[in-house]
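hey so u asked for the seq, here:
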Amino acid sequence: MQEPDVSFTLSGDEALILFEWLAAFNQRSETQDPEHQVLYNLEAVLERNPVTTFLPNHAEWLEKARARFMAEFEPPDGSDPSE
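ran it, structure tokens below
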């Protein structure tokens, strides 16, 4: 019996950030277990997305994506929610 596919949606910023993390992780990993293969497959899917295509100013895009993403979790008044 074939398992059903699972789909999910990421924003462009999330896709770029996750792709960068997966690429770095997979480059360091020498393990060939099923979990690592799944992560490699996910990296390959994200790599085909135009959002994650390497552009001349890729580092700048990534920095801005990270800033936008983290800004979503900052309180509007700028206070630290952990205090």
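The helical segments are 12-28, 34-47, 58-71. The CA atoms of residues 26 and 40 lie 6 Å apart.
lmk if thats what u needed
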